[in-house]
Structures are given as C-alpha cells and as structure tokens.
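Good morning,

Attaching, inline, the backbone tokens for the sequence recovery test we're adding to the shared suite. The designed sequence is right after.
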C-alpha cells in the first residue's frame, strides 16, 4: 500500500498505536505530522522515521485536551505542508479500573475533554481542508466501547460516544467525499499494556492471560494497527461510517461472565 505525499496528522503519535501509525504511514511515503505532550519521546521518533524514509515525520508538541494547542497543531501542519489528507485521532487515555463510586464527576469531564471533545474539535478544524483533498478521518475507538468493560464506566462511555460520532459525521461528510471511519482495537501490545504486566503480582501470568483472551493466542502489534489505518486511508475508498474491529477474535464465543462476589 502506498500513500505517497499525502499529509497525515496523527495525535498521540509518540508511542503505542499512534507510533505504529506514524511508522507505517511514513513507510508508505506519507508526510506525517504527529503530536504528543513530551518532546523527549516525539523528537527521536521523528528523526528515526524520517531517516528511514521514503516518507517523513515531524513532531509537534501538543496536549490535545487544550483547545489552543489543537488549533496550533492544524495550523502548523498547514504552514508546513499546505494541505491535510488524513486525520488520525488516536490520542486518549484509559484511567485505572475502579467502580463508578470512586470516579468523580470532574474526572469524567476531564476524560471527555481528552477522549471525545478533542476529536470533535480536531475534526471541525481539519474538515475545511479535508474537503478540498477529499481526504478521510480515522477515529481510534476501542473494542470495549461496544462490549463494555469491568470498572471502566468513564472510558467506555467516551469510546461508545466516539463510535456514534463517527457514524454521524460520516453521514454529513459524504456530501463532500470525505470518509470517516473508526478502528476499535482490543488487546494490542503497547507501553500501557507493558506497564500493567510489570505492575502485576505475577507478570508472566498477566501477560499469558492477556494473550489467551484472543482466539489467535496473542496480542496485536502497533504495526498491525497502523496497517489497518493505512488500508482505510489509502485503499478502502468505498468504506465510510464503519467500525473496524482489531481484536484477534477476542469478542467471539462465550467466556466466563458469572458475577463475582463484591470484595
């Protein structure tokens, strides 16, 4: 798959699935602008990816939960490249698992700003330019946005809303030949997953359980996530408003769901 010369914005691109998108799109010839909060993580990745070619990557320090910084990201991309062909809204956060009793309303509001409002705003800022290029938007949702997850009410709510937003925006933007799709990853081996493994009482068991959740017997890779996004951007030209599940079959068949006693 090739995406030569296409200008792609990736939020949360310094690690995890965002990093996978940066690497894969640049390998396909794209001009990638990616953001994250820490320059110490973004600048080395940009230099490495650009050196490998054939595309290029440039880092822009940005906290997408802050409205002025979101506008700065779009303005920077336009000043550097003069166009936008693809927007990948990947930045987001999964809070630690806890029951609803332990979440505050402000914590929920803050998560909405990061996981949902930032996506709305970046789409709104980018669409005037995506309409000119007949480009596309890819919103990073989550498998749990449609199936639920234990002690994750706030996170699941943001990702479920993102799926609905994606479909509604796809309806609106079809008139402008802009496609809008979602990707819902299941267990993909990211730094966040590695942190959970390292913090577990039995790290080997934690990793094995994570791998066993998939029919394919392993977790996905960030490059596999990037290749799915590249397919949506470069090849899936008759696809819009669709949630693409990247799960290794984790949601299929029955599993143990009998409620456990409260601790």
């Amino acid at each position: 798959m090739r995406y030569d010369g296409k200008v792609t914005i990736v939020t949360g691109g310094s690690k995890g699935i965002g990093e996978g998108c940066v690497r894969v799109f640049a390998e396909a010839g794209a001009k990638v602008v990616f953001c994250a909060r820490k320059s110490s993580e973004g600048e080395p990745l940009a230099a490495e990816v650009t050196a490998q070619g054939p595309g290029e990557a440039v880092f822009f320090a940005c906290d997408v939960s802050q409205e002025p910084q979101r506008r700065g990201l779009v303005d920077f991309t336009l000043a550097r490249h003069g166009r936008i062909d693809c927007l990948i809204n990947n930045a987001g956060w999964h809070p630690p698992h806890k029951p609803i009793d332990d979440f505050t309303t402000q914590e929920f509001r803050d998560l909405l700003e990061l996981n949902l409002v930032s996506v709305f705003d970046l789409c709104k800022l980018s669409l005037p330019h995506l309409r000119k290029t007949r480009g596309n938007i890819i919103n990073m949702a989550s498998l749990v946005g449609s199936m639920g997850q234990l002690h994750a009410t706030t996170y699941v709510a943001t990702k479920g809303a993102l799926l609905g937003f994606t479909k509604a925006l796809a309806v609106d933007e079809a008139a402008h030949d802009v496609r809008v799709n979602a990707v819902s990853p299941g267990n993909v081996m990211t730094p966040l997953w590695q942190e959970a493994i390292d913090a577990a009482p039995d790290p080997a068991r934690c990793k094995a359980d994570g791998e066993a959740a998939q029919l394919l017997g392993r977790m996905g890779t960030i490059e596999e996530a990037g290749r799915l996004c590249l397919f949506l951007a470069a090849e899936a030209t008759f696809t819009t408003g669709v949630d693409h599940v990247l799960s290794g079959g984790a949601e299929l068949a029955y599993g143990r769901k009998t409620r456990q006693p409260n601790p």
